Each structure stands twice: as structure tokens, then as C-alpha cells.
Amino acid sequence: MKKSVFFGTLAAAGLVAGFAAAGTLDDVKARGELNCGVNTGLVGFAAPDANGNWSGFDVAICKAVAAAVLGDPTKVKYVPTSGQTRFTALASGEVDVLARNSTWTFLRDNDLKLDFVGVNYYDGQGFMVPKALGVSSAKELDGATICIQTGTTTELNLADFFKANNMSYSPIAIDSNAEGEQQYLAGACDAYTTDASGLAATRAAFANPADHIILPEIISKEPLGPAVRHGDNQWGDIVRWTLNALIAAEEYGITSANIEELSKGSANPEIDRLLGTSGDLGPMFGLDNLWAKRAILASGNYGEIFAATIGESTPIGLARGLNAQWTQGGLLYTPPFR
Amino acid sequence: MAIVSDPPKQSFRLSQLLYDTRYRSMTIQVVVLMLFMAMAAWLIDNTITNLAARGKDFNFSFLGIRAGYDIGQRLVAYDSDSTHARALLVGLLNTLLVAFLGCIVATVIGVFVGVLRLSKNWLVARLMTLYVEIFRNVPVLLWILIIYAVFTEAAPLPNAFREGGTASMILFDSVAITNRYTAVPDPLFSRSLGNIDIGIFLISSDLLAIIAAVVAGWYASRLVLRRATAVQFATGLRPVTWWKTLALLTLPGVLTLWALGFHLGYPSLRGFNFAGGINVSNSFMALWLALSLYTGAFIAEIVRAGVLAISHGQTEAAHALGLRPGRTMSLVILPQALRVIIPPLISQFLNLTKNSSLAIATGYLDLRGTLGGITLNQTGRELETVLLMMLIYLVLSLLISGAMNIYNASVKLKER
Fold it and tell me: From CA B95, how far away is CA B105, in angstroms rounded?
């Protein structure tokens, strides 16, 4: 699989030599469709339904960007990528933006020549075990067999965590979340480890979610965010500020219910600038003035997206926690729109 | 005197390159070579340009940095502090292990099935045909997945081996087949000779001593047999040798084991998993079995073809000389059949070795899993790792075919 990706990369690179350096924005506009790299299937974050329509927390980013750039949130081609293929897909130009719960790290930002444009979910790595195992802390996992997705930061954190605590484990390498779920349920491993949000999403899809617990230890920082290719600053800015617009909309109380009313003019000049009622922010990076309004209309503001896809009322049931607005004690804080 | 004049000398004209048959083939070859070189140059230039456009360089220094990940099955010392080069070595050895064991089992299965398929027993012959056709005509990846699924779904959890559990160990409580691994006893030596450090990894002196003893015993038994043949030629009577060869083949190994204080460390359930023995992972077992059964089916056909290629007159002639059927097979038919069998057998060994890269399907960390999987992902060096991996597989295949060609040269028809 890797080889085919590699040769595909070479071939694609050969065909579009010289063309790839042109602006991604122009490419997307000319194509009339946004290629968005997503997870192969992680309920709540990115998963297709029975009709093949993708939905989820990460998918909402794709929709918002498509709405901002192309004016239509449905003009997205979702490209499922595994932990192994995601960065190659982005680097080779197969996707324009990667919204696939990927951790922002120094190495990926610099050595892999990606640009993470922000954080849409502050996560950390956790462990899930069957209740019947009688384990209540990750420190009790000495000697356990652990399922782990290859090509991820979690793989490295796991090695570090067990080394730091002077414990041993045997890793079982798996390729996708679906395979991990199957192996874990078959008892091929005692524990499954990935980002805590991913664990919650995986558990929600089990037949008996209550038979499994997520251990309290969070062993790493996993800031997940959308990424673009390094070097195309205009495109990076568009994705970055689309994400910021969604977060700011929640902060300023712009929802999909009241956005039409607010865009007629409001008491808050910042809302006016954001929604394009006043000022001309959009043309500064090659879009029109209504880009943010369309992005918010795509699936609502950050809070609405969170509540609809992974929030406490969904089967996944994640609390806002660190992902609340800074005014609510969370870490979400956008630079001002001016 | 008649003067012979030289034939009129024609000067070389450019059109001769195309119309003169003496030069035409040369012209075509030169053109094709130039096209090929232009194509290669275009590919390389493209790669360099695109790497430069993305700000990526081409170097192998990543092999020296800390790998940071763990590998379940390792034949040499390795932990997450080791380098990527070390991880490469671990993966390479895992590839070699499964390829080596796979080739042996596939050959045994192949010879057995290939000969049995020619059996006059209707049922046996049909059963063998069934095996060959089923395994040969389903992709090997599916076999790997099916066998892996059987292991993980049908075998009990390690937990089930606890007191009062539903599963129990087999072979005098020494082996436990679980859905994760097969726990087998660990060979231990109470009077161990220690290890030899050859810089890259340690080699067990005990293993070397055992191998040396067994090889020496085998060589001595060959001498005994050769002497028996000489006596037979001189006197017409063959001395009884079976107890000598049996003793020479077994005693040296057994005595060395005894001298080293050989005993077994039995696995037992401690904590989550079995410990104290060797846990052979299911991913390895599934890969090994699937590759052996799949390639074995092909080898069976090669063996059958080889045996059928020998004229039936050879068998009849051997029988007329009074040779029993077993001796006919081993002394007359097989040595000749080997000439037909060896060359296609080489490509089956190569296929098995390369197919072992399907290990990724079961999470067995071979070369493809370490260098071409995790290392590639953690360092983002796609071009370097894939080229390096291709180079290693190429060298591996050339070594195997080189070794087999030497063997082939030794059995092939020697014309005098």
C-alpha cells in the first residue's frame, strides 16, 4: 500500500511539476471542489453514514473551508487516509487540507514540511480496558498486551510512558481504528490506547460500551488540528482563519439560528467585521467579505459542531473540558478579527 | 601477372545507418538506449526538483537517531532508545526468520504433497489435488488473514488458563495456545558458555557449540557410509551401519546439550500474560503457516512435474536391477528430477521471501513493518526508506538465488 502511495506520489509529482507551486486557493477554485483528508472512520470525528455522507467534528472543518472558499459546504471530496498515508497524501497534493485528528508536533511541522494552522481539539492519550480486567490505573498495566496504531504519536508516547514507569508491555501494531476495535474486542490485547477522544468515540460504537472503562491517566498532550502543506501561506491563512471564525462565532454568540439577523448589523463591531457587514477582511486573503458567514452557516459555530458531533448529548459524550472558550476556563482563544 | 585490384571502396553514408542491415540493429539499440537514459534522467531530475520544491533533502542520517517505538518480536536486543538502523536490523531479522522457516516447511510440504499426488491411492491423490488447487488459487493475503483470524478468534484468552479457567495447556503443561501467542518452553543452559559479541549483536556460544557438534556428527556419519560403500565395492558385502550412523547423528548433539546443562523454562501465567517461556506471536504463526501452505502448493506442482519428467523406463530399469521402490526413488528418480525441480524452486523461495512483506496484514513487524512502516511514518523519509527497503529486498533475493544456483550447479547434469 505504501509503495503504491509512493509511486503515485512520484507520478503525480511528475505530472504536476511546476504546477504544484501555484496557489492551492486557485487550484481549489478551478477544480470547484475541496479535497479534504479525513479519518478512514472514527465515529463523531469523521465517518460516512449508510448513504455515504460524511459527518463529524473534523468533517465540519472541511465543510466550513469549502463554504468559505467555494460558497458551498457540499463541494468536498473526502479522502479517507490512514495513520500511515495521511501526511504523504497531503504532501503529494492529493488533499488540500488534512482534517484528521492529527497531533501538532515540532517534527511534523518542520521536518515533514506541514503547517498546522491551529488546534480544533485539545486531547491527550489514554487507555481503554475491559471492566472485567479489574484494572483502575494505567500504572497497573505492567506486562499487558496493548493495541496501538502505527505511524502515530501515541506509539512513541506509549513507549516513553512504560519506560518512565519502568514497566514492560508487548505492543500489537494495528493499521486503523477499525482494526484496533476488532482486535481489542477479540481480546487480542488487554488495553487499547489512542487519544482519549478517539477512545470515547470507539467505545460509543461498541455493543456494550458500559463494559469498558477509560483509565484516568492521560499520558500526553495531543493538540489535534487541521494541517496544510508548508509554503503556501495564503492557503494556510484561509484554513487558519476559517477555524478561528468558527471559534470566535461561539465566543461572540453567533449561532446558525441568529446569524442572518446579526449579519444585518449588530452592536458589536467585531461581529460586523467577522460577518462582512463592515470592513473588508475577506479580500485581504483572496476571498469575498461573506466567507466567515458561509463558514459558520455550514454546520454552526464551534460549540454547535462540538455538541452535534461529539458532545455530551451524543453517544460519544465528551465534555468540553480544555476545549471550552477561554472565558469558560478552556483553552480556545482566537486572535481578534480586525 | 594478373593484378588483383581491391574492390572499390565505398565511403560511409549516413543513410546506411537506416538501410544497411549491418548497421541497422546497432542504430535501433543506440536509439532505445538513449530513450531509456533520457527517461531515467527525467525521473531522477523530477524527483530532485520536487524534493527541492518541498524543501526536503535526501539523506540517510535519520537511521542514526532514536527510534522511540517498541517492537514486539525481536531476535536481538532492542528498545525504544535504539536507533532506526537498529529497528531496521530487527525487522530484517524478522523477515529472514519467517522466510527461512517458511522455505523449509514449504519445501517439506511440497515434496510430500507432490509425491503423494502421484500416488496410486485414489483418495490420497485426490486429497492432495484438492489441497494444491485450494491453496494455489486463493491470494496469499487472504490465507494470512484467515489463519490469523482462526488463531485470534478460536484460541482462548490467556486469562482462561487461570485456576478454574476453561482452557488448559497441552503437551504436559508446557505449551499454551492463546489468542495472542503460543507460549512454548524456553531452552535454558545451566552451564552456559555465554555469548559472543560481534559488535552488532550477540551470538549464543551454546547454539554455536550445538551446531558444531551436530555438523561434526553428520560429517562422521557420511564418512562411515562412504567406507561402507568402499567395503561393498571391494568385497560385495555391505557392513551393517545403521546403528553407527544413528549414534553419530544423535549422540554429539545430545551430549553437548547435557554438557551445557540443558533444561526447559516452562511458561506460566503471570499478571496479564504468560511469562517464563517464549511467546511466539500469532502474527508470526499465521504468516509462517500461510506462506508455507501457499508456497508449498506451488512446490508440490514443481515436484510432481519433476518426477513426471523422468521417463518411466528409468523406474523399470531400476526395478529390473533389483532396487526396491524406495531406493529407486532416492537413487534413480529424485537425483534426476532435482535437475528439473531446482530452477523453478528458486523462484518459489524468492516469492516466499518477498511475500513475507505481507506481514503488515497481521501486524508482524518485519522489514516492511519497521523500516517501511513505523520508521517511514515517524521520520517522513518516504523516498529514502522505500529505496533502502527495495535495495535490501533486492540484495536478499540475489543472495538466495545465488546460493540456490550454486546448489543447482552441483546437481545438474555433468557432461563429460
Answer: 15
pLDDT digit string, tens, across residues B347-405: 999 999 999 999 888 888 999 989 988 888 888 888 899 999 999 999 999 999 899 88
CATH code for the part of the protein at A126-220:
3.40.190.10
Residue of higher predicted confidence among B58 and A16: B58
Query: Helix, strand or coil for residue A149?
Result: strand
Q: Which residue has the cell 565511403?
A: B11
Calculate the CA dihedral of residues A19, A25, A26, A32 and round it to 10 degrees.
Answer: 110
For chain B, the structural domain boundaries read: 84-154+280-411
Q: How confident is the model at residue B274 (pLDDT cuts 50, 70, 90)?
A: confident
Fold of the A2-122+223-328 domain? D-Maltodextrin-Binding Protein; domain 2 (3.40.190)
Quick one: DSSP state of residue B263? Answer: E
Q: Is the pLDDT of residue A179 over 80?
A: yes
Chain B residues lying within 8 Å of A112, measured CB to CB: 380
B365 interfacial to chain A (CB closer than 8 Å) = yes
Question: How far apart are alpha carbons A26 and A31 in whole angstroms?
Answer: 8
Q: Kindly identify which residue of chain B lies nearest to residue A185, measuring between CA atoms.
A: B153
A99, A222 contact by CB (below 8 A): no
The pLDDT mean for chain A works out to 88
| pLDDT tens digits along B214-230 | 999 999 999 999 999 99
CB A24 within 8 A of CB A30: no
Radius of gyration of chain B (CA): 29
- The residue among B78, B180, B281, B387 with the most chain A CBs within 10 A of its CB, best to mutate, is B180
State the best of A172, A174, A181, A232 to mutate against chain B, taking most chain B CBs within 10 Å. A172
Helix or strand or coil: residue A294? helix
User: Could you read off the pLDDT of A66-117 as tens digits, one per residue?
Assistant: 999 999 999 999 999 987 788 889 988 899 999 998 999 888 888 888 899 9
pLDDT score, position B131 = 95
Q: How far is A213 from chain B (nearest CA, A)?
A: 17
Q: HEC states along B202-232? A: EEEHHHHHHHHHHHHHHHHHHHHHHHHHHHH
Report in angstroms the alpha-carbon separations of A245 from A230, A259, B126.
22, 13, 71
Q: For residue B323, what is its C-alpha cell?
A: 532396487
Q: Is A13's CB within 8 Å of B365's CB?
A: no
What's chain A's Rg over C-alpha atoms?
A: 20
B277 and B266 Cβ atoms separated by less than 8 Å: yes
Return the DSSP state at A228: E
Residues 6+ apart with CB under 8 A from B190: B260, B261, B263
How far is residue B369 from each of residues A83, A89, A149, A172, B185, measured CA to CA in Å?
14, 19, 12, 12, 27
Alpha helix (H) ranges present in B189-333?
Answer: 205-235, 242-259, 282-309, 312-320, 325-327
- C-alpha cell of residue A119: 488546534
Option in A9, A20, A163 nearest B53 (CB): A20
Domains A2-122+223-328 and A126-220 fall in the same CATH topology: yes
Contacts A159 to B, Cβ<8 Å: 68-70, 80
Q: What is the Cα–Cα distance from B236 to B359, expressed in whole angstroms?
A: 56
Judge whether B357 and B366 are in contact, CB under 8 Å: yes
The CATH code for residues B84-154+280-411 is 1.10.3720.10
* pLDDT > 70? residue A2: no
pTM: 0.81
